[in-house]
Task: inverse folding
């Protein structure tokens, strides 16, 4: 075995505390996540105990207010934590991103009373969240959602079906977007729904090409009742809340994509140094060396792009365009890098004996979730040229 294996990413972190935090994350990833990732993904096992451990370590509420149990970390630090977790196992990294997304509405738009009542348990009390926006007929066109919430005194009655819900059926709470008014984006309201409420059921999880350990399921709301005290923000403000959450969530997907790509590059470099053909390590051959160089360049560029967007967010500046760019570039890069990693390993790369085939299958979904990359291009173009005139 070569002694020239890849080293941990040399990160530029703002404080000593953040450096210690990333060291802790690497330790947890190496000890508790990476060793079981392949086996558990193959069997479709969801690692709930890992999320409990992350909650106990304060890693499920990193970008949120410390007064409610959050870690008060800047987004540029939080995203690098996601990258490390996703490099160990995407089910975990993406799961933390989804949980943070589910907390975003209440943390950003809830009343102080709501935040005091719910955020401590959501951020550090062992709970796991999910985000319910998409529906069977409302994916990219999320403003056309049809799940209804009808007011009945001091309660709301929610009826409808949500689709493609990460953590569907295993989450303790759901941030749900439902129609309370007229068609279109202004008729949507957000609610915080307990996972065990009567009338809420989950379908059998989808059978997916990757991320088999992360349950993705439809949720059926059959007259689910929630008190008005669980309405987040004002009536009709839900779509605004959803878009704000998605801007932040897209950065989470970008960071996860870079983590997956980094893991694939590390595997490819190690293999290329160990594998010998024609009397030399295959890393000596220029064609392969150029592939590795291009892979590393894509990863560094993606990391720089998501961090630049995160720094805008941390400074309180607009970052929607940059978030779309980061999500677009990083996920396309992850698909390219993982594909090249399989090629470098050759026949071995196509087998489950090495992780690169799993990383390639997982990278694909990142080009789809939280706005397909075609939607990201539309978002970017609108920032450049304004809305479409057709």
Result:
């Amino acid at each position: 075995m070569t002694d020239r294996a890849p080293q941990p990413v040399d990160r530029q972190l703002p404080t000593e505390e953040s450096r210690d935090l990333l060291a802790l994350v690497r330790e947890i990833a190496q000890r508790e996540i990476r060793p079981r990732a392949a086996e558990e993904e193959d069997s479709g096992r969801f690692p709930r105990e890992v999320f409990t451990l992350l909650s106990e370590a304060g890693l499920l509420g990193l970008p949120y207010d410390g007064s409610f149990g959050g870690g008060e970390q800047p987004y540029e630090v939080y995203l690098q934590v996601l990258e490390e977790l996703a490099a160990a196992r995407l089910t975990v990294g993406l799961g933390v991103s989804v949980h943070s997304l589910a907390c975003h509405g209440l943390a950003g738009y809830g009343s102080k009373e709501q935040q005091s009542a719910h955020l401590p348990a959501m951020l550090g009390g062992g709970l796991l969240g999910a985000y319910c926006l998409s529906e069977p007929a409302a994916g990219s066109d999320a403003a056309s959602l049809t799940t209804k919430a009808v007011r009945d005194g001091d309660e709301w009655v929610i009826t409808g079906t949500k689709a493609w819900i990460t953590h569907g059926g295993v989450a303790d709470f759901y941030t749900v977007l439902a129609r309370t008014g007229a068609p279109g984006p202004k008729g949507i309201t957000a609610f915080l729904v307990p996972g065990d409420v009567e009338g809420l059921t989950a379908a059998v999880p989808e059978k997916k090409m990757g991320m088999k350990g992360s349950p993705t399921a439809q949720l059926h709301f059959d007259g689910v009742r929630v008190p008005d005290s669980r309405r987040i923000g004002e009536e009709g403000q839900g779509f605004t809340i959803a878009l704000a959450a998605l801007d932040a969530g897209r950065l989470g997907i970008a960071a996860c994509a870079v983590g997956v790509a980094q893991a694939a590059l590390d595997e490819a470099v190690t293999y290329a140094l160990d594998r010998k053909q024609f009397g030399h390590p295959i890393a000596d051959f220029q064609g392969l060396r150029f592939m590795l160089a291009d892979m590393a360049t894509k990863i560094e560029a993606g990391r720089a792009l998501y961090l630049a967007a995160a720094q805008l967010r941390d400074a309180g500046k607009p970052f929607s365009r940059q978030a779309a760019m980061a999500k677009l570039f990083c996920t396309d890069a992850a698909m390219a890098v993982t594909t090249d990693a399989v090629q470098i390993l050759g026949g071995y790369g196509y087998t489950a004996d090495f992780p690169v085939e799993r990383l390639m299958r997982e990278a694909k979904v990142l080009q789809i979730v939280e706005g397909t990359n075609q939607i990201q291009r539309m978002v970017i173009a609108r920032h450049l040229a304004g809305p479409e005139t057709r």
About this structure: The first strand starts at residue 129 and ends at 132. The two ends are 60 Å apart (CA to CA). Strands lie at 129-132, 148-152, 155-166, 173-179, 188-194, 200-202, 216-227, 231-232, 276-277, 280-281. The chain has a mean pLDDT of 96.
